């Protein structure tokens, strides 16, 4: 029996759906996963709404799966979903599509900003916007990561502006939205891996959805799971696929 089948039994069709689904892609996070999720559950005791945490593991080769299973056993709110290959975008999509909550918050295991959860949910429930993006480049954000990582965020945002006319300041990282409203946009996305999140935000913007950017505070808790310089060729290739997908409606070869 797979982890997903097991969790389906714990939170089956007769269980009350949570208001919020917190979706967290995880890849080779054995050093950070247990403590971060325990801390998140502790922080979430302050909220007064039902929620679930979806750990979307994708192709880990360390102890991430075993730790995820232990967290699933320990906390009723936690579910472990598994995707076989290292693919951030596919893991994020799996979490969004599997989520049972009315609202989805896309989180990162090294951020877990519950203040963003509260502020974004307040804006969404008041119908002030359709999607909230936690922008690392917002004027009020505090980005404590190394200079090279902050510069990389600025660079990819500039490339998205020049190539696709993106008007926001960030696409990757924290996001929140009313699930049913944004599912058609999720379904239209065809680029995976690093730039799935960018495609989701850009397609939402181009379709006329209202996007609100909120500041976030980012602290470097560990080096990136994948070396930044090793990612550059893949990001550039995915950016080319993204331009073809959005401007010319051409799917990457593996999706044809």
| Secondary structure tally, helices | 9
Q: What is the string of SSEs from the N terminus onward?
A: HEHEHEHEHEEHEHHEEH
Mean pLDDT value: 87
Q: What is the overall shape?
A: globular
Strand order of the largest sheet: 3-2-1-4-7-5-8
Radius of gyration: 17 Å
Write down how many β-strands occur, each being a DSSP E stretch of 2 or more residues.
Answer: 9
Structural class: alpha/beta
Instruction: State the major sheet.
Output: 7 strands, mixed
Give the distance, in angstroms, between the N- and C-terminal Cα atoms.
Answer: 31 Å
Q: Beta-strand level of the residues, as a percent range?
A: 15-25%
Report the helical percentage. 40-55%
Low-confidence runs: 1-9
Labels describing this entry:
alpha/beta, 44% helix, 256 residues
Helices and strands in order, then pairings?
Layout: H1 3-10, E1 20-26, H2 33-43, E2 51-58, H3 64-74, E3 78-83, H4 88-98, E4 103-106, H5 114-125, E5 131-135, E6 142-143, H6 147-164, E7 175-178, H7 179-188, H8 196-206, E8 211-215, E9 217-218, H9 228-248
Helix pairs in contact: 2-3, 6-9
């Amino acid at each position: 029996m797979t982890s997903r089948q097991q969790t389906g039994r714990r939170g089956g069709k007769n269980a009350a759906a949570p208001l919020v689904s917190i979706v967290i892609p995880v890849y080779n996070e054995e050093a950070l996963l247990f403590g971060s999720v325990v801390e998140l559950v502790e922080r979430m005791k302050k909220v007064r709404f039902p929620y679930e945490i979806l750990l979307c593991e994708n192709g880990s080769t360390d102890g991430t799966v075993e730790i995820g299973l232990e967290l699933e056993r320990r906390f009723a709110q936690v579910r472990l979903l598994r995707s076989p290959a290292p693919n951030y975008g596919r893991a994020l999509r799996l979490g969004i599509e599997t989520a049972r909550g009315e609202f989805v918050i896309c989180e990162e295991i090294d951020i877990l900003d519950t203040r963003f959860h509260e502020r974004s949910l307040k804006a969404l429930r008041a119908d002030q916007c359709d999607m909230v993006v936690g922008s690392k480049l917002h004027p009020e954000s505090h980005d404590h990561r190394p200079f090279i990582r902050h510069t990389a965020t600025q660079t990819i945002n500039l490339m998205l502006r020049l190539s696709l006319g993106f008007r926001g300041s960030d696409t990757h990282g924290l996001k929140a939205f009313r699930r049913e409203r944004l599912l058609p946009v999720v379904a239209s996305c065809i680029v995976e891996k690093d730039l799935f999140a960018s495609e989701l935000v850009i397609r939402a913007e181009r379709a006329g959805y209202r996007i609100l950017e909120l500041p976030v505070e980012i602290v470097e808790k560990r080096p990136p799971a994948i070396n930044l310089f090793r990612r550059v060729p893949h990001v550039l290739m995915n950016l080319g696929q993204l331009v073809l997908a959005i401007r010319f409606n051409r799917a990457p070869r593996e999706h044809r």
